[in-house]
Amino acid sequence: xxxxxxxxxxxxxxxxxxxxxxxxxxxxxxxxxxxxxxxxxxxxxxxxxxxxxxxxxxxxxxxxxxxxxxxxxxxxxxxxxxxxxxxxxxxxxxxxxxxxxxxxxxxxxxxxxxxxxxxxxxxxxxxxxxxxxxxxxxxxxxxxxxxxxxxxxxxxxxxxxxxxxxxxxxxxxxxxxxxxxxxxxxxxxxxxxxxxxxxxxxxxxxxxxxxxxxxxxxxxxxxxxxxxxxxxxxxxxxxxxxxxxxxxxxxxxxxxxxxxxxxxxxxxxxxxxxxxxxxxxxxxxxx
Amino acid sequence: xxxxxxxxxxxxxxxxxxxxxxxxxxxxxxxxxxxxxxxxxxxxxxxxxxxxxxxxxxxxxxxxxxxxxxxxxxxxxxxxxxxxxxxxxxxxxxxxxxxxxxxxxxxxxxxxxxxxxxxxxxxxxxxxxxxxxxxxxxxxxxxxxxxxxxxxxxxxxxxxxxxxxxxxxxxxxxxxxxxxxxxxxxxxxxxxxxxxxxxxxxxxxxxxxxxxxxxxxxxxxxxxxxxxxxxxxxxxxxxxxxxxxxxxxxxxxxxxxxxxxxxxxxxxxxxxxxxxxxxxxxxxxxxxxxxxxxxxxxxxxxxxxxxxxxxxxxxxxxxxxxxxxxxxxxxxxxxxxxxxxxxxxxxxxxxxxxxxxxxxxxxxxxxxxxxxxxxxxxxxxxxxxxxxxxxxxxxxxxxxxxxxxxxxxxxxxxxxxxxxxxxxxxxxxxxxxxxxxxxxxxxxxxxxxxxxxxxxxxxxxxxxxxxxxxxxxxxxxxxxxxxxxxxxxxxxxxxxxxxxxxxxxxxxxxxx
Amino acid sequence: xxxxxxxxxxxxxxxxxxxxxxxxxxxxxxxxxxxxxxxxxxxxxxxxxxxxxxxxxxxxxxxxxxxxxxxxxxxxxxxxxxxxxxx
Lengths: 287, 512, 87
Fold this sequence. Notes:
By secondary structure, chain B is an alpha/beta fold. In chain B, about 25% of the residues lie in helices and about 20% in strands.
């Protein structure tokens, strides 16, 4: 949400999103960059954002605003900084800046994370290296509008032109075990289109999607939500595992398949997602 | 003396009379009487049509101190109230009590008449615009009497509110006084708020801009109640009466509140065949209706009725078969008017049938689910819809207290904070509806259930809804906004807030 | 610290506050406050504004504030921005 809008900053945490992006870049006019920076800083200090991940999109580091944003905002310890037009160099630069600030402020080293906004051709081409450029990188956000602009192609509803980008990002993120977040669907009145677009992203291996309007959140969640069958299975896995632990057994199996660590982890993630989306009650089914 | 809610009230109020303090939503049932009406019978040779308002005033012999009444179906496009009061003022009449079921910004000229003593009393269920401000500042000689829609009908029928002349704005009237609201330039649909006036006033005058030959069809108010008929240039401006269709809100926070309210309704177990529902006309209220519609469609539920002020949205639900019938006390938009005119399952109800507690059973008694608004709520669940947080009158119960009392599940939907002011307070400026009638408060940051509703709390615990106590909601709000200073009001009582049964639930004091 | 020119920050949107600052000759801190919630929060708003001004060590400043229900964090932020713009 636009960083210069107090009304929106106040309500951000209750809209149902998992992460909120407080924007100092495109949503703020050039003459208000200072205003937004100070407002977002104070918002993070005062507002109860404990229920969401707080992400601040700073201005590009090669503008007069970017470095000032990082300096002021990092000192109030947001969860994550979203770095626009991300490339290897930019990420390394931010990483170094954050090292310094965390030390100065006495924060745990590496506690402020980075999401790289891949929205340029070079960023996409080198996305694996961009992620590797810093241990802080926890995810990549794909910026479809700016990327297609950089490539000189049209951005369409069907999204064929970003097929490769989605694939590449999903792959690189999976390889390096970070989140991959799809570009927003810009027609806020087209819920059917949003659902299709989100399903496509999910089918290509992306792990999340950005929303540009609170009314999109529910649909995005429902597309990414585990199905009733998946949830049931996950709960059974955890149940069987708990039983096995009680009986002192080291391993267990369900339906003829051995349940090992990766399966337990996936089941836990599924159940957590289910609880978070309100599909099942948190009765401590997930450990 | 104190009301059962702890409000301190004087035993006698100058300009009002003796005060019967509120002692609970359902005081002991006693035998009630409908008053007898004295009328002048009309013979076959008598003519009712008069040439102009002046002739009407000549014939009526209106004296100082009389009570004249008006309905508000022409809302902010009404010309009749202003026309009549102006005409009487010109004749030097003073000390009138205007009993208008609601007052809107268009009735601004009343302020001048309040200041010069033409109008010294007002009885109404909802007051907005300059008149509200003027009353709050003490410009009305006697305290205004603020009633509920059902309470006004009760007052009229019992004789507590005696009407000397009822002036009925009639979109269509025939030469013998039959009235309907569905035809004419100023068509407004149903005439729910005019029925008791027509039946119990000493004299009833139909003022129309669409005089038709006898007999009119349909007849919503019968000739047997009407003394005179007069045609004027225009009774109202259609643009101010209805304005297209009321729309569902797009505000994301309001939509979250609406979604939560719908989940509460679902969890209550009341969504089933034969259910009934009513909601206001505001953006959030309509959003709740939209959510409920989704649930009903998904589960294949057919409700018995939806009621209240009717909007195009409710009409759609009727037409899609989600409800068997509509009970309409007023039409809010063109779609509703058309539907009432053409669809026999879209039925009218008078204000008395709607919410009068002293009849053999009002529609609110049959209502399952009611969605309400609020300007303030206290930790006892008492609700204010009469004054804003600054102490200024900005509305009134309308049907709030009636529906809250009658319905099985009454839900207040509201933002937790409005312009920095917390919605939940220890003490609210004015109590309009008692907490015993309010079951749930739904905000974007939490849901509070009235502790009386143990059954509901049980059911809601089984969901993922963020249940908190009302005190926790208050603390949550104050943590964000800071604790507001209580607004200081003057001693002078400018309005008396009557509950449905005529007892006094609170008073409104003047603003500085 | 003294400011050298007139500057403003914030807007008249709901939940925001419009702050205009200008240097004055009296050397004191002068405040004109308008607010839609003046009765309920006027004292608090005044306190927040003056506190921020003192915190930044500014004197000889006249502040005109038009509040539309801004929370304390917004008030402080807008005052700080306006002052920085006026240096």
